[in-house]
Amino acid sequence: MKNFAALLLGIVVAAPVFAQVSLFQRDPEIGRVYLGLGSGVTDFNNPKFSSVSWSRFESRDTPYKILGGYQFNRFYAVEIAYSQLGKTNSAGIFTANDGEAFNYTSSRHKGSAVAASFRYSLLPGGAISPFVKLGLSRVTNEHDLSGFRLSGAFSQSSKQTETRPYFAIGALIPMSEDLSLSLEIEDFGRVGGNAVNAAPALIHPRTVSASIIRRF
């Protein structure tokens, strides 16, 4: 008991001294909550089938995202983000196996994703701090297909939500003590079927974005 009391007293007396040593100083980036808002370019990577005579083909749009995270220390953080990936609208003529021509007046994709990930910073504290993120994304692919053929007009709508591996690389650029610019490339995984009339048709969204991060 006396030894324990002596040890406790020694810690109390020595604590102010050790607090001045950088090794024991509290890292200002430990236990920080952060929020962010960003935008950029989404490439849906929807296949451009050679069997379709495209009059208009779109695969890119402008997304936006909202994110939040918790930074455990200078290296590790957990993050969750919602991304509205954007829309595409394409049109063309497709000839079916029976020789009938389908005029797809509209083939429209709309995508969104929620991603949860771990972030690891490679060189924290520098003018540019590269990072990688690994996790899972919950991707929603909405696909509307409409047009006409000899037998009359047709339309179909489909929606698919799947969980896919999520990967991102990027860099944080400090702007002030609590503000940073985040530049990153994200891969949300493949959702849908790889066929002209698949419901929904395939997308494999990837984004390039810039976000403003505010730490609290």
Secondary-structure map:
Elements: H1 2-18, E1 32-43, E2 52-56, E3 60-61, E4 64-71, E5 76-95, E6 101-121, E7 129-149, E8 152-174, E9 179-187, E10 206-215
Antiparallel strand pairs: 1-3, 1-4, 1-10, 2-5, 4-5, 5-6, 6-7, 7-8, 8-9, 9-10
Key features?
8% helix; Porin; elongated; 61% strand; mainly beta
Tell me about this structure.
By secondary structure, this protein is mainly β. It has 1 helix and 10 strands, in the order αββββββββββ. The chain has one helix spanning about 1-20; strands spanning about 30-45, 50-55, 60, 65-70, 75-95, 100-120, 130-150, 150-175, 180-185, 205-215. It is elongated, with a radius of gyration of 25 Å.
Beginning-to-end CA distance, first to last residue = 42 Å
Helix content: under 10%
CATH class: Mainly Beta
The ordered H/E elements are HEEEEEEEEEE
Strand order of the largest sheet: 1-4-5-6-7-8-9-10
Number of strands: 10
